[in-house]
Design brief:
The complex is a heterodimer of chains A (301) and B (284). Chain A is built from 13 helices and no strands. Chain A is mainly alpha-helical. Chain A has a domain at 2-208. Chain A is globular. Chain B has 284 residues and is an all-alpha fold. Chain B has one domain. Chain B has a two-stranded antiparallel sheet. In chain B, a hairpin with a 2-residue loop joins strand 1 and strand 2. In chain B, helix 2 (16-32) runs parallel beside helix 6 (140-162), helix 3 (39-56) packs across helix 10 and helix 10 runs parallel beside helix 12. The radius of gyration of chain B is 19 Å and the shape is globular. The relative contact order of chain B is 0.21. Classes of the chains: A mainly alpha (301), B mainly alpha (284).
Chain lengths: 301, 284
């Protein structure tokens, strides 16, 4: 039961990442392949401040979020004017740098030995995990509300305009770079926050948690569900993480000699699913290509 | 001074797999205009094909290079024919093409692990001899790799810049419609380019295999640096890819000599982000 709550909590974290990536790629057209970089920085930041420096969890989380925001702002200043392919490579390079530094800076992170134990911020006996799960549910729910609001606002309209034709939006007098930079910083900072929140879930951190597989799991979820819809992204997480990581890895009866191959098989299937969806259903399995024309008029008052 | 001498020497010797990979990668990037992450799997499969002939069939190391490179080329053509060309025809955009290539790369990599397992495979090498130049050593295998790389690089350079076929490739990359109007068959040219690129990737994998071993993640580990080198060198510049990969090799060797190898990667990747930024700033 405790393990199920842990799995579902992690599922919620991935859902949050997928929602934020929906804002970045689905609404703004920024192909951020450094999801694991921001998430991992947040996770390790909270762990280092909490375990090494002995700061209280909440304080560590706030400082980490600020650091991630500064980092995202700096990276955004450097790369957000570039075209999609360059942004993709630069963010991927960023996440590789984060992982490498976690391995090399042993004095801070203990390198491959691992860093622990990160306690839950509040401990109320056996109910701790369930309360933490509720907290995550609340956060993901408020993300959803905020994104719905964003879709209906003028800012949301502007993001769609930037995604579809940035030059046109700029020619209408919109500061497209500033809009992209602010939203990129904000969403990346929230990815860092989700990372910080997953630190006490994992309790013990090792660098092999920061593999590109995390980024791809979120991307596959987004592509699978359709990048233009948050529900699609959340459905995608259910299918990838929920189906493969929770159901197959934990509850499917597999004999021990094959059990070691299950994670590899999962990543193989991730790849296969990604290829199949992109070739046959480019707009995602929900396939609402016309989604943005059906939205109500923006509230101008 | 010793640092300069040693890092140039080690850098040039160890850059040979990177030179091959970068030259092959840049051809595909030039012709089709998208970043093909699955190219990393050409490198991995090159090393594994060599291991298949060398370890499983017991063929001599040098003889196993030839079928391994050809098979890697065939794999590259297969990915083009069965996945990338249909995707182009469906009008998948460049960013989505990259995601598609990453998906394919996951499929190929973990498919390989499912078949042969995740353990390292050691190629049985011919006897190793050491040579000494001005106080720095090199093995016979490293020298052979370097010579082969130079031969391959020279041939590729010749093909691209001096022959009619190279002209056709450049024509297609610059303006596909115009090239087709003048009677060039884009399909045939693309298939040959993907084949050459795959062969280069396969050779790169075989030679990385000599220096270390065959591992399912070896292609993924170098693809980011390869892409970086090609972008810094300029789109489609085989010349630039050659120079940039040698420079990257020397830089890696220099940083490794004074600190840790992982820092070399961190510094190269950060430099890459700044080069991208600098280019973008110059354009606007």
């Amino acid at each position: 039961m405790a393990y199920l709550i842990f799995s579902i909590s992690l599922l919620l974290i991935y859902m949050g990442l997928a929602q934020l990536l929906h804002v970045q790629f689905g609404m703004l057209g920024i192909p951020n392949f450094g999801v694991v970089g921001f998430w991992g920085f947040g996770m390790y930041g909270v762990a280092v401040f909490n375990v090494q420096f002995g700061w209280p969890f909440l304080f560590a989380l706030v400082i980490t979020c600020l650091l991630v925001a500064i980092l995202a702002y700096g990276l955004g200043m450097l790369i957000l004017r570039l075209e999609g392919q360059a942004i993709l490579c630069a963010t991927l390079a960023f996440s590789a740098i984060v992982t490498l530094l976690v391995i090399t800076e042993k004095w801070l992170t203990f390198g491959v030995v691992g860093l622990g134990t990160i306690q839950y911020p509040v401990r109320i006996g056996a109910a701790t995990e369930i309360i933490y799960f509720m907290l995550l549910l609340l956060i993901i729910g408020s993300f959803q509300l905020a994104i719905n609001k964003l879709h209906q606002s003028r800012l949301g309209r502007l993001t769609i305009a930037i995604r579809d034709n940035e030059e046109l939006a700029a020619s209408l007098g919109k500061d497209t770079f500033k809009t992209k930079l602010i939203l990129f910083t904000l969403t990346s900072c929230l990815m860092g926050m989700l990372g910080g929140l997953s630190a006490p879930l994992n309790q013990f951190l090792t660098p092999n948690m920061l593999v590109p597989g995390v980024t791809f799991a979120v991307w596959i979820a987004l592509v699978l569900g359709g990048k233009e819809n948050t529900f699609g992204a959340m459905l995608g997480v259910f299918i990838t993480f929920g189906l493969f990581d929770i159901l197959v890895e934990t509850y499917l009866p597999v004999s021990p000699e094959y059990a070691v191959m299950v994670p590899n098989f999962k990543l193989f299937l991730y790849g296969a699913v990604l290829v199949a969806v992109l070739v046959y259903r480019p707009a995602g399995i929900l396939n609402n290509r016309q989604a943005h024309t059906r939205w109500p008029n923006a509230d101008l008052s | 001074m010793w640092l300069l001498r040693d890092s140039v020497f080690i850098g040039v010797l160890e850059a040979s797999p990177l030179i091959l990979a970068a030259m092959g990668f840049t051809l595909i990037y030039y012709l089709n205009g998208f970043i093909n992450f699955a190219y990393g799997e050409s490198i991995t499969y090159g090393a594994y094909f060599a291991a298949l002939f060398n370890v499983s069939f017991g063929i001599g190391f040098y003889w196993s290079i030839v079928p391994a490179a050809l098979l890697a080329g065939g794999l590259s053509v297969a990915t083009y024919l069965f996945l990338f060309r249909p995707a182009f025809k469906r009008g998948v955009k460049p960013t989505e093409m990259i995601i598609l290539s990453i998906g394919l790369s996951f499929m190929l990599r973990y498919g390989l692990i499912l078949i042969v397992g995740a353990e390292n495979i050691y190629l049985s090498e011919p006897p190793v001899a050491y040579f000494n130049f001005l106080g720095v050593g090199a093995t016979n295998l490293q020298l052979i790799a370097l010579v082969l790389v130079l031969v391959f690089a020279f041939n590729l350079y010749w093909i691209i810049y001096r022959t009619g076929f190279g002209e056709v490739i450049r024509a297609l990359a610059n303006n596909e419609q115009l090239a087709m109007v003048s009677g060039i068959n884009p399909h045939k040219v693309s298939v040959s380019v993907w084949f050459i690129a795959g062969v280069a990737g396969g050779l790169s994998g075989v030679f990385s295999g000599i220096f270390a071993l065959a591992n399912p993640l070896m292609g993924w580990n170098v693809i980011l640096i390869t892409i970086m080198v090609c972008i810094v060198a300029g789109v489609g510049s085989v010349r630039g890819a050659l120079v940039a990969s040698v420079v990257a090799g020397i830089l890696t060797a220099a940083i490794t000599l004074v600190s840790k190898p992982l820092y070399a990667e961190v510094i190269l990747l950060s430099a890459f982000v700044f080069v991208l930024w600098y280019r973008g700033r110059r354009l606007t």
